[in-house]
């Protein structure tokens, strides 16, 4: 075989329609018996996409440009779920946004029946939110692909998901709804605590194998937002405050998950939330009207702190970028080159980033060099419509498409996009560029050759031994020793009476039970007692939380005080004053530790971890805690209030970080060793 001889890919088909030409085989996707350019895997993804777009109707193009949640027929997400029913048989309409609970002016289709999604609405991008076992996931995605193969043009489906590879002792819809099936790693802050960009490429490579084994092709992540407001509820989805570290992590993750270029083994990344979601007013999120603005009080902050990770994503070839809901406002200090200003005294068009042509076309595509597509965040047409409230839905679609948005998230109904064409707001040709970008990804992922996966192999690969062991080791090493004592490292075989106490916000009783089970399983010398007075040592796990859809309310201030975020501070202090206490603080945000740190014997940071691995780390397994704070813990409420929301705490000066009772400075990068 010569170097130029095409290598026959493996073809997967349920229709059995194949074409043989030049001694090679191709799938006959439209069943016409001829080898059309888009069916010819020897051609480039873009060539094939251009040919396929020419064959598509306006309705098929519109369907391609939406991506919505989809479920198997037995899913608990469906009101009509039926055990044993593989494909969803009914459309689901709702009166309120399923994520924010915001009422809709009129009912909205939130998920289609599978047949309607594929054949009636021509949808091909689907979001998987169910926490399915590996074989079930593969069986379901295969069934949807078979339906797609039997459509007019045979366009396969792309399954997207939020991250699935992080420990979630408590799973939450829209954040980490899937847990305990795929390999489990610490949360993003925990990965940042490892300060290991090379590991991020390995992480991406390994979890991509799990995703593709189950029929998942596209990741909604990771977040390239540099966290610059400590009270932001989504701080925990970031890689922290260090711009250089976040930048290297994002670039390496994209390379790990996608490879040097997209292929049949890649998972396409959707890096978010452009141009940086950390710039929050008092921490409030733009899911809500009262948090809708990105205001930059510091001249040049956008360029200095927030754009570099997105530049890295573009350099690494990120398949898509997601703009945030927020809109820039003209009370900001200067951020853009004057050539991009709206006028002599007006810097920004005050519309959400999905509608903002300067940010999407000039900044993202031309300056940063993004070559893929733009994927809106959920609900930009019917819920979070900041700056375009006066437009009709067809007008919003037209404005976003013309600004550079290619696909619209958490939408199951393209009807209003079709109306934009019918009303003359968009032409059929206006959809072509978006569809070429979207189809190019599907071709590059190899789905037009073989969209099917092996359910038996999925059981072996997903959560398999090697990748699971890597994740567990990362959990142990992410633990961060903030202040040590003679209690550490734990001597697991030594007889000791232990009082475990978990305090925080969400299902704390469940976490308490898991901690006690782990102590019994892992700590052989421990005897659990019911009061601090009986104990030789207390293990307190403080788990404060700022819950996006519970705490972020109009007129209600957000706080990083553990007392305000579910921790029984008085009880923690009483325990610490009764018995030598190992205080473990779970970090999703930079908490104020002034009340609960001084009386503890030792202080440790965790970043979502299974308690088995917490105990093993504290006993010195794999060398013990190796993490370093991925953010600076503020010294006080005043330190936060006096810092600008667009500058991360790491860069806010030496008076910003907290100093503990022994003089340790809890700045970004702090972490001790045994």
From TrEMBL:
Pfam family, one: Glyco_hydro_3
Keyword Signal: yes
Reaction(s) catalysed (UniProt annotation): Hydrolysis of terminal, non-reducing beta-D-glucosyl residues with release of beta-D-glucose
InterPro entries reported in the protein's UniProt record: Cellulose_Degrad_GH3, GH, Glyco_hydro_3_C_sf, Glyco_hydro_3_N, Glyco_hydro_3_N_sf
GO BP: glucan catabolic process
Record GO terms (molecular function): beta-glucosidase activity
Keyword annotations: Glycosidase, Hydrolase, Signal
Every Glycoside hydrolase family 3 N-terminal domain range: 131-439
Family of this protein: Belongs to the glycosyl hydrolase 3 family.
Name this protein carries in UniProt: beta-glucosidase
